[in-house]
Design a protein that fits this description.
Elements (H helix, E strand, L loop, with lengths): L1 E2 L6 E5 L1 E4 L2 E8 L4 E2 L4 E2 L4 E2 L15 E4 L2 E2 L3 H12 L5 E4 L4 H10 L3 E3 L5 H4 L5 E5 L4 E5 L4
Parallel strand pairs: 4-8, 5-9, 8-10, 10-11
Antiparallel strand pairs: 1-2, 2-13, 3-11, 4-12, 6-7, 12-13
Length: about 150
């Protein structure tokens, strides 16, 4: 983890590429896993799981920071449909690698990274600007002004 001396609001983390690419967007952070089948709406990219802390919020075009997938293998199909409908996240940062999340990241075709050298749930907050450079295996966080 690196904090830029010239700008302490900027933090850079190193991790492991899952799916290559580069994206920048507003962070949407949850410490809860997300269910694909029955947990998200592929029409607008919103979380529809009733008791989820992101219920009613859309990840479309945002950098989704979450532990990973839960539920059935249908998870990847719903995130694939989000990609087809233009409602997928801009990038994914997750902490628990499973076959479900790996397949979901691949079919979603957005930059995805895991195994960061800092805890993303402590360092990234919803609203922060996050740049994911999966090719370089880095995540650059610019903290939102409070």
């Amino acid at each position: 983890m690196t904090v830029t001396e010239q700008n302490p609001r900027v933090i850079t983390l190193r991790g492991r590429k899952v799916v290559g690419g580069h994206a920048t967007g507003e962070a949407l952070v949850t410490s809860q896993t997300i269910s694909g089948w029955g947990g998200i709406s592929e029409r607008d990219g919103s979380v529809i799981e009733l008791h989820h802390e992101l219920h009613g919020q859309s990840f479309a075009g945002k950098v989704l920071v979450f532990p990973g997938a839960k539920g059935s293998s249908g998870w990847s199909a719903y995130f694939h449909m989000c990609r087809l409908n233009g409602t997928a996240p801009a990038a994914m940062i997750f902490t628990r690698m499973t076959t479900k999340i790996a397949l979901g990241a691949v079919v979603t075709r957005v930059p995805a990274i895991t195994d960061l050298d800092g805890d993303p749930f402590e360092l990234i907050e919803t609203g922060d600007r996050v740049e994911v450079d999966a090719e370089a295996a880095t995540v650059t966080i610019t903290k939102a002004m409070t």
